[in-house]
Structure formats: C-alpha cells, structure tokens
Automatic annotation (TrEMBL):
<comment type="similarity">
    <text>Belongs to the OBAP family.</text>
</comment>
<feature type="region of interest" description="Disordered">
    <location>
        <begin position="1"/>
        <end position="31"/>
    </location>
</feature>
<protein>
    <submittedName>
        <fullName>Oil body-associated protein 2B</fullName>
    </submittedName>
</protein>
<feature type="compositionally biased region" description="Low complexity">
    <location>
        <begin position="8"/>
        <end position="20"/>
    </location>
</feature>
<dbReference type="InterPro" id="IPR010686">
    <property type="entry name" value="OBAP-like"/>
</dbReference>
<dbReference type="Pfam" id="PF06884">
    <property type="entry name" value="DUF1264"/>
</dbReference>
Length: 251
C-alpha cells in the first residue's frame, strides 16, 4: 500500500522532479469564472479572510531530511496560543496548496501526550537563524512576533510533494520538520540563498541572525519534539487495509 516514504506508482499526472508541476486539466471555463466573480460579491469567505500574515521558511521531510523545500505559510490566529497555516509552495497566483501546519505555544505543547509530542517540531533555531521571516515586513515590526514564535511548536503535514515533480497530490501525507543547527537537519545553503535573493532578505550572520541574537530563547526545548535529533529516526505514514467499524448491520 501507499507510504509517505516511497514514490507512488507511475501516473499520467507525474511531472519532472525539480520542475514546477503543472496539474492536468483544461483552462478554466468562462461559466466557472463568472460563478467565482459572483461568489466574491455575495460570500464573506470569513475563514480565508482571517489569514493576515505571509511567512516564508523551509521544511524537511521527517523520513528523509535531505529532501527540503521552501515553504510559504499563510497564517490565521485562533488565539494567541494557536495558529493555523495554509502552506503553499510559493506566493504566486498559481501556487499549490501543499499542506497545513498547526502551531501552538510551549504551554499548550507541554500538555500534549508524549506520543503526540513526537509528531511536532520546535521553532527556536528556525527563527533565531533568520530562516522564518514575514515577507516584506521590517524586522523592527516583526521582532516581537518572532520572539513569541521561537517558543512555539509546529505540526506540519505535507499533502502534495511538489519537490519530486508530482503534478497532483499523490500518495499519503508526509510529516515535515523544521531546520535545525545539527546535520543532517540544516537548511540547504542554495535554497536559502535563492529565497534571500528573491525577497531581498539577509539571513546571514550579519543580517537577521545578528538582529535576533539577543532574542530570548526557550528555557528548554522538550526532547519529545524534533524526534530525529535524539533517536535518529523519522516518521513515515503507511496506508494499510483495516476492518470497517460497524455500528449497525449492513443490509
């Protein structure tokens, strides 16, 4: 059966690894465009309009840390301690929705069961190293938010592995983790350089990293998070047949 640690079987939707995947299908019909325009005038789209922040960073596959992607989080706040992020592969109009990340404060994280904590990653290094940044927002304006984010934990499921050229979301979700200071969890230099050049960001030792050097760090990072650092193992999702639960006899 399908596993997030294996490539799916060949399909007509498969693209070329490393290239921007183009989903199969025809151009959007005029009737669909008219419906979309009309819906914009009468629908509030309240959940979508709660996305107030665009942040760019990098993510690694929990089962293969050598596979890394630039990721774009569009963030909405449920409250000060819980964020939910729609994650895209870019900020272009044609961007693919590749997953979702949930972010919680350290206080909430400490209340989770140990088995659940193992699926989460810390953000302290990612923030302090200048990898996570609110695109286009001056550092002076985002500094308080970054200090708060450094003490959070995230759980990120990737549903569309565009980095291997998938033109559709194939297979099962893959758990993702954040970059860390230790190999093999460091963000690839070429990915960081391309991001920095595109958005005119300086995440070097003389840029964001220097600006955040005095930022308070968490008193401790729970060892159940960033599971691979302690145990040298990641997580992959396997799909297996299971007996259906029957609350009433089938006809």
């Amino acid at each position: 059966m399908s596993s997030s640690d294996q490539n799916p079987g060949a399909t007509p939707a498969a693209g070329t690894a490393g290239a921007e995947p183009a989903p199969p299908g025809g151009p959007t019909a005029v009737s669909s465009q008219v419906l979309d325009m009309g819906a914009q005038m009468v629908q509030a789209l309240k959940p979508v309009r709660q996305m107030k922040l665009h942040a760019c960073s990098f993510a690694l596959y929990a089962h293969d840390l050598h596979r890394q992607m630039e990721v774009h989080h569009f963030v909405s706040r449920l409250n000060q301690d819980v964020l939910q992020c729609a994650v895209y592969d870019s900020d272009k109009p044609s961007a693919r929705l590749i997953g979702v990340e949930y972010i919680v404060s350290d206080t909430i994280f400490e209340g989770l069961p140990p088995e659940e904590q193992r699926l989460w990653h810390s953000h302290a290094y990612e923030v302090k190293a200048g990898l996570w940044t609110a695109v286009g927002v001056p550092e002076a304006l985002q500094s308080m938010e970054m200090a708060s984010l450094a003490k959070t934990y995230g759980k990120f499921w990737c549903t569309w592995q565009v980095d291997r050229g998938d033109a559709l979301p194939l297979g099962v979700p893959a758990l993702m983790v954040s970059p860390q200071a230790a190999e093999p969890g460091r963000a690839r230099g070429d990915l960081v350089r391309r991001r920095d050049e595109r958005y005119r960001v300086d995440s070097s030792a003389g840029g964001l990293k220097a600006a955040r050097v005095e930022m308070d760090e968490p008193e401790w990072i729970n060892p159940n998070a960033d599971y691979w650092r302690v145990h040298g193992k990641g997580f992959a999702v396997d799909v297996v047949p299971a007996d259906m639960k029957r609350h009433a006899p089938f006809p």
